[in-house]
Each structure stands twice: as structure tokens, then as C-alpha cells.
Amino acid sequence: MIRLAFFLSCVCSYLSLGADPAMPAQSAGPPTREALTLSLDPEEQRKLLQIDSRRPQEYLELAEDLLDRPDSQPRLELARDLLVRAIEYGRVLPENRRVASSAAAALATLCRRPSDQLWLRAIATVLQPGDAPLPQVSAKPLANQAAEAKASMVLTLIRAGEGTEVTELLRDDAVRAILVRHESELSADGTLTVTDIENEAKKWPCPECSNAGIITPPKSQHAAAKICPVCAGNPGLKLSPESLGAQLRLQRRLQSDAPESWGSQLATQTAPPARDPDPASVAIVFGVDARKSVWREGVWISPADAKPENP
Amino acid sequence: MTSRGVRQSSRGRADPVALFFGPTGSGPFALLGVDARPMDSADVLEVLHRRLDQLAGHPQSATPAAEEVRLALHSAAAQLCDPALQELLLQQWGGSKERPRERSGPGTPQALFERELHLAVGMSGGWNDQARLRVLAACEARGVAVADAVSLLSLRSPPVEPVRIQPRARSRSTYPALAAEVHLEEAYPQELHPEKEYVRWDIFLLAGFGALALVSVIATIILLSPSRPTPSPAPATPAPELGVASPVPVSVQELPAIPADLSSGDARAISLEIVGSTRDLATDGAAALQRFSRGYEAFGKSWTMMQADELAAVVSGIVDFAFAASRQDIDVAKAITAPLATPIGDAKGSVRTLAMSAGIASRLLSEADLGRAAIQSIASLAIIPGAAQALDGAASFRAGIERALPDIAVAIAGSSNRSPQPWKEFIEVRDAVFADRTEPKDRLTIGALDALLHAPDAGVAGAPGVQVLAAALSWQASDDLRNAVFGWFDDMAIPGEAISAITRAMVASSAPGIDSTMVLAPASGPEARAAVRERLAQVWQAGPVRTSDISEEWKALAAKLLSEPATDPKAQLLLASRLALLTLAGEDIRTSKPDDAKAALRELVTPAASNAQTPPPPARVPSPGPQSGAIDFAQAGNSVQARLEALKKIQNSSLETDSLLARMLVVESARGSPAPVRDAARAELRRRIDAPAILLATIEFFRQLPETPENADWVSEVAGKPGAWKNRPKWKVSGLLALLDRACERFPASSSEASIDAAADALGRAWWLRAGESGEPGSADQSIRRLESALDSTTRAVSRREPGWSPSEIRRRKEARLSIATASLEKAVVMQAACVEWTALQAMMDRPRAGEAIRDITREWSMRCRTADTAVLQLLEGERAMLQLQVLRLSAGGKS
């Protein structure tokens, strides 16, 4: 496992090739026979032909070997398949659950999305109760909290027509990144972008009334005050009631972790279905047919179809 | 208790030894703070006192942890005072092979006495009944006040003044069991010298074997117990210090190193055998394993008769052996689990041994440091015959047995042996494990009865076993008992002989309301059964609910609601709330609360949730027009009078609060000048406090708002929640949150939001009621947490073990799911999932034979949750699953 941990750091830099649990393996297609033949050394090929679902440890160990040299996509994809099978075959018997747990932890590092990593790490913990603490969603650092408050302020200011300040705040990369991350929550239909806000900011303050909303002529003119003809007394970004509601909810989320109503969460699609860290679902999510446990001629086949292989 | 024992018993918390002494190594030498080297008794007592002093000086010396360490120190000292044990321990802990240096004699009488006391405590495994007995005996023999002896032991305080040993006549009345011992010797003839204390140790013979009366026999057993200081017949040797004859000090040194006969179940003999086998591992693994198996087998047959401390000592020895064997790659799994593979027969001790093996295997499986190979080897063999799953790790020997007992009951019921003997031992094991915990004892016994009653030959052949189990029930009326007994009466597949045996035991129990006319003859027909059942129902005030009208109505409604579709989130939540209410009504029916059930059903017919309030229209902010009051105010310029007049005009008008007017009122309320203008603006703002434009304007202007108490006042009114924050000097952060909260209420993100929230409240209320809470319900998030907590508490004492369904596994899954949930709705789904699992576990307890049907329900639920595209749909599936489980619990006969 130490060896695995070391090389996983190398793998992390290779994340562009990493698997996505939400995306079944079929979509990428299995590694071709030729590509694999080129990427596996003779010893790895020998092990691959001899692995047996009754010994899930072998799948994990071979995956570790492959991840020692994560220099090609076929190797990574095969490692992923091996890890999924190690979980599937290891989760059933108590004596093999540690193997399954290690495989899940390794698989987590191959995933791109933090939520998938968290899910697999939770599975690793479920498989091995009592050892590692459960993964936790980390608390926000203070710097992040400050940036989130500023991001919330951007939304208030753009509605009030304070374009200059909005432009200034959006120069802060942290603020901008937060708004980009929450772009789908900027409006009810998710179409408003940070660029749109930036463009809107350029229009304000109102060139006619400087956001006062009223044109007041000098007393000497003895003329009556009137609503600004440019901004109609209402400077700033115009939003539909639903989009205003969506923005206010985003501001609240950015300002506080306090729970919000279910209706609000559903309306802004910020409460996805809960995921179950069920080890039995890993193979399904990764699209791995666990009944096929034997590797022959570049493909996984069921043991019943396999002839004994002499390395 | 060994030092290892202290550490093992402290899993999951700080090592108490390290707390008081800092990091130490393992073993008795390290615990006493010395290197592993030969020591005589005086050395041992010296280091013991040093350690006790150190402990007494610690600020936490009065805590239970200190007490635990204190006892471990005594135990370690007692082990080292025994030369035979010390030799073994020296080999184990790698000490030098030098012979212990001899001191000039047995020491002062006080030292000898003190050592005797420490031995008494240590060899008893701590300050317990046995230790008290031994100390009492020693005091009796020496004529010392017990209080002085206790002080001398420093059990609760630092060392005290030396005890003066006073001569006094022996008495037989102090302790009956000692009488037989004491009568062998009479009063000490010697007078103690005033300056030089000295004890005359009488020489006496062992008590007169079979000629003594029963009391004498019992006392003799105590006397002959190897762990007890036994008077030696050796001639007295002079005490050099005193120059007079002194008795030979009584200690275990005179006892044989390893008692030959293990069959008596002597704890110390078994301990020595196991410790010896650990030592032998270094030289001959096979012989060591053989020797271990001898001790292990003897332990299996006798553990139920051991004191808790003796038990702990032997278990600790076994764990040590397993560790030592693992280090040498010797597989102990077969030896440990051998009894699990042995068919349950008539042989005495077979169930006792089986349970012991399960307890030890579970205990070892919890030792992560034992090594993967050893754990895997044990796990692969640790399966009780007929059980679906291997044993799990358990923090203690007893906990392991507790978990295994339901499977053991099934194994006995499934065996071909119909003798009552295994059941008698089962009850003996049950009592040893659960002590006086009546509820889990009854639950386990009901489960065992259920298994036996459904065995193929439960009739005439099984009746003796049924009789044993039924007689072991407390017959205290409980839901579990009612449901089980009524189920047995209703199930005509259960033979009359078995039901007859149950009624005989019930009558013999003299439970309230039960009389001899309730005994059912073995050949009774269905009518007689129904009549007795009816009488029992009256006695237990539990009507035959499954045939009542209310139950039928409930079932019909359940069938209807379970098939009712719901497409949008609001409808799904409303349906979920109705399902939850129906589950609650089912629970009321099940627990014989017909009135409550009727009330819940009434609520279902006209559910509060269906009165879903029409959501208020979304807030609207009027655009400013030429009539806006803000124009007049702007026109007033800097004239205070004109501005006041403009404000007065606004007050007298019925103009809408447009965004421009709202902004003017907010700005002037916050920092208007002079004060009369500010006050007038605030008054007008308060008049229009509910206007959405005021709320939005306050949010927009908030960053420029002076943080004054006056501003906090009106801002809190705009926010609609006079929170405590408004009285704080720095109130703006909380104030902004309150304003955003209010704005979220006023400006929904979708037209269905308010109705979804209303439906969520309805579901929350149903959960609140199911949790047994009264008063105003909290939010749905709070309610589901309460419900989960209530179900967890109700199911805490579960002893039945289903694969993947132990309480700890359910909690573990809940924690794992929670760890990846972020939104509160997701978390509610997680808590509800735990509720489904608790309900499933309760159903398994109620209907042990419906396990497969219950698993089908949970599998289906799990699959539907996995494919659900919203959290609300997951909630609906959870409620459906819980209602299905409730239907199963209330189904006819309860058997599937």
C-alpha cells in the first residue's frame, strides 16, 4: 500500500485519463488487445492470465503493478477494471473486505470529481469499519468565506447598478471562481453567466442620473424633478422574479451553511439524490461485468468460457 | 487482569496506563516500571509501592481509570510474586536468565503479610468478592483488622502507616466459609513483642477430606484452590530478625507450577496452561498448540462458572497466545474454531464450548494487529453451523458471544439432537452473558423458541427443549412476548405438544393474571387454542388486533397508498407524509393502541397535508412612476421643512412602495439628517415594512448602513425576525443573513416552492409523531433526526444477528452516507435510509422467519433509491419501504 500511495501521486498528475464513475467504462471502450500487449511487460501479462476471482488480492496487486508505471491510457483503464473487480470479489467475504477497501481507496484517486472521490473513500471505509475515519466534507477556510461574501456582494451590487464596484470585485480570481462555480445558480434557468454580469457592469452606473433614479434640475431652472429617462428610476441588472429568487438563494448559501428549505433546494436544483456508498454498486456504476473475471486474448470472459492458460 | 488486559479493555479511548505513567512497554515488568529481570517478592512489592505512590500523586488518581491501573498493578505484582509465573513471564518478555537473588529470609511479618494481601488481590484479578474473601481469610489468620489490611493494600490511597498486627483469638464466626479452615488451628499461643511485630504462623493440616460436612467441603475447595494462599505443613523456620519461631509464609510459591488436572475448571490452572503453551511456542510449536488446546478445551467447559476477572485473565492469555503464534506463523484458527465445527451433541459442555469459541473468535477478529493472515484464517472458519455469515469482530469476549447467541440457538434448533441438555446450556450461557438484563434475555429466548417451534420435529421430540426455554422466560408482558405467543398460537403448523409445554411453563411462572386453567392439553384443537389465546389477550390487554376492523381498514388503506402514483415533488412529499402516518397507525395497532391508531387514520382521511395552503402570490416590486413619493422628496432639496412635508405627504397618501421610494426611505432611515427627518423616514418605513421593495432596498444599501442600535431595530423589523443579533454591537453579519432569509421567503425561485415546503412540513410532522414527540414539530430535517434517534434507541438491545443488519453496521452505513451528503435534503434522505434499516431490523426480530421477505423489500428499496432522479423520490421510496415492512410485521401469523 505504501508503494501504491507513492505512485498514486504520479497518477494524480495523470488525471486527465482518470475514470469517471458516472461514466460507464463502455463509453471509453476496453483497452485494445494490441495496445495492452504493448503496454504490459511479460510478468504483468503472466499475472493477468492467472488471476482468479477467488483471490481478489491478485487483482489489487496487479492494479498496483500497473499503477507503478501509469504511462499509458490502456494501463490505467486496465488498472481501473482490476480495482473494480477487486472490490466486487473482495466485498463478499469478510476476510477479503480489506482488499476490497484498499481497492476502493485506490480507485478514488483515479477519479476526477471530488464527489466521486468522496463516494469511493466512503465505500472504502464501509468495507473496513473501525480503521480509517469517514471522509468528511472539509470546512471552508476563512479566506474562502471572505471571497464568498464578496461574491454575494457582486450580485447585490449588479442589481443596484454599481457597475464600477462589480468590475473591481470580479478582478479577484477567488471571487470570480466562486461565481463561475455557481453559474447555474445565477438565474432560474441557469443561463446567466459571469461574463454577462461583467458586460452588464459596464453599463452602470446610470450615465444620466448616476443611479439616483431621479433627475433634479437646479433650482434656478424652476423645473420639476422627474424619473430618469435612461434607467427609469431603476438602475441595475433586471431579473425575472424567479431569477431574483435564485440569486437571493445563492447569496444566502454563499453567506451561510445554515440549512435552507427543501422547496428552495429543489427549485434551485442544489439537492441531488443522495448517493449510497454501497460497495455492490461500484461495478454497476463503472459498467464492469463482474461475472467476467478471467482475462483471455485481450478481453474479460467468464470462467466457464476460459481454458486454463499456460503462461 | 494483566497490563495487556488494561490496554485491551480500553479500546477506543486513551490508554489509562500511558495517562498515568507515560508510554510504557507491554507486560507486567513494563507496567511496574522495571526491566524484565528476576525479582524476589520484596523487590516486587517495592516497585509496586513505588508505582502506587506515583499513581496516588497524579491529579486523576481518584478516577475509574486510576482504579483500573491500580488493579492492573496489583495483578502484575501478583504474577511476579509467583516464581513459576515469573519464570514464564521472563521468557516471554525477554528478561535475563539470572536466578532471582535470595534475600536473607522471608522478610518481616508485616512484609510477609503485605505480600500475602497483594497476592490475594492480584490472584483474584482485582479488588472483587474473591479478593475480599481472601483478604478476610488472611486477616482472620493474622488477627488483623480488615480496614487496616485494606489501607495497607493502598487500594484507594497512598501507602499508610505500618499496620500493627495484633494478637487475638481466632474466631469461627467471622465468615462461615472460613470456619472449616479455622477450626484446624486454635488461637496463637505467642505474644507479640511490643517492638518487634511478629506473627506466628500455625501449622495445620488440610481439612479432613470427605468426613467434613457440606460447608466444610466448600471451604476445603477454597482452601485447596491453587490460587489461594494455602497453609503449608512445612516446619516453621526461625525468623532471624525476631529470633523466635516463625511460620513459613504462605504463598503460591509452594504450589505446583501447573496443576495437573484442568478438568476441575480451575481458572488459574487454565491460565497457567495457556501461558505455558505461549512459552512453549518458542521451542515446539506443535506441542504448544496441543497444550493450548488442552487449556482452551478446559476453559470452554468451565467459563460460565468463572468470576469476571478470572474470565478476563484467561481470555487475555488466549489473546496473547494468538499473538505469539501469529508472530511465528503458527495457525491457531483451527484450534480456536474447532468447537464451532463440532456437531452439537448431548456431551456436557458442548454448547458452552461452542459459545466460548464464538466469543474468542470474535474477540480475535477485532485485533487488527494480529496480522492479516491470522485474521483471514480465523474469519474463514468462524462460522456457526447454519449461520449465513461468518462471525464479526467484537470488542470483548462477552460481546462476541452475545452477538453469536441467536445463531447458536438456530444451530441447536437445526441439529438433530432433541435432548433438552443443549438448551439448558444455552440458557446457562445466556445468563452468564446477559446477567440480569431481562429484556434482551427474553428477546433471545423468544427467538430461540421460535426457531425450535418451527423445526421439523418440534412436537413430541422438541417439547422438552421448549419446556426448558419457556421456563427461562421472565413472562413479563411485553410487545415482543405478546406478538410471539399470539403468533405461535395462531400458527397451526406448531404442534399442540409444543404449545402445551409453553402454557405449562407460563403457568409455572406465576405471572400476573395467569392461572392453572390456561394450561393447554397437548391434543387440544384450534378452538381450545383460540380460547386460551383470547384469555391471554385479555390478561395482557392486547386484543386480537389482526382480525379487528381497524386492522382491516389499515391494511386496505396501505394497499391503496402503496400503489398510488405521484409525479411532482409536492405530490411525492404529500404521499410520503400519508405513508408515514399510516406506518404510525400500524405501529399503534401493533402495540395495541387502537385509539391512537384511529386518530392517525382519521388524520389520513383528512390529512392536514392535503389542505396544502395556496401559496401566497410571489412578491412584486412596482416600478417607479411619475407619482412616486420619492420625486417630491428629491424636489425638496436640502430644505428640512420641505423634506418633512414631503414625508408627511407620503404618509397621507396610499401610494405603492416602488423601488425608488423604498430606496429613499431606507437611506433616510439609516442616515437621514437632521434627526426629525430620520425619525419621520423610519416611521414611514415601518408603516410600509412588509413591502418587498423595502426589503430589497435594505439589502442593497446594507453595506453602507451605519452599525447603530437604532438601525438594528428597524432592520430586524424588515427581516421579520427580531433575533438576538440586533442587541449585539456587531450585528451586521447576522442582520444580512436575516434579511436574505426573509428575501428567500418573499421571492420564491419557483411557483411550487412554497407548496413543496408545506408538503415537507406535513412529512416532518408525520415523522415527528412517529418519533413519539409531542408539541410543535420542528423542521422536517429535525423531525427525521428525532425519528432516526428514536428507532436507534428502540433497537439498541438487539441481539439477533442478520448478515449486514447489526445495529453497528446500520450506524456505520448511516455515517458513511452522511459523510458524502451536503445539502440538508440529502441528509434527510440519509437519516430516513437509516430509519428504513432500523425498521427492517425490528421486523426481523418480530418475524424471524420472514427474513427473506424483509430482505426483498430492502433490496427493492435500495435499487429504487439508486435509480431515483431526485432526493424527494428517494424519500417517497423510503416511506413505501417502511410501510411495506409494517405490513409484513402485522401480516397474519407473522410467518412467511
Describe the structure.
- With 311 residues, chain A is mainly alpha-helical.
- Chain A has 2 domains: 2-137 and 279-305, no CATH class; 142-256, no CATH class.
- Helices cover 51% and strands 3% of the residues of chain A.
- Chain A contains 15 helices and 4 strands.
- Chain A has helices at residues 2-12, 25-28, 33-39, 42-50, 56-68, 73-90, 97-109, 114-127, 142-160, 163-170, 173-181, 194-201, 241-255, 262-267, 282-286, and strands spanning 214-215, 226-227, 294-296, 299-301.
- Chain A has a two-stranded antiparallel ribbon with strand order 1-2. Chain A has a two-stranded antiparallel sheet with strand order 3-4.
- In chain A, helix 1 packs across helix 5.
- Chain A starts with a helix and ends in a 10-residue tail after the last strand.
- Chain B has 896 residues and is mainly α.
- Chain B folds into 5 domains: 1-104, no CATH class; 106-236, no CATH class; 324-539, no CATH class; 553-602 and 754-894, no CATH class; 629-746.
- Chain B is 60% helix and 1% strand.
- Chain B contains 40 helices and 2 strands.
- Chain B has a two-stranded antiparallel sheet with strand order 1-2.
- The two termini of chain B are 48 Å apart.
- Classes of the chains: A mainly alpha (311), B mainly alpha (896).
- The interface between A and B is large, with 68 and 89 residues.
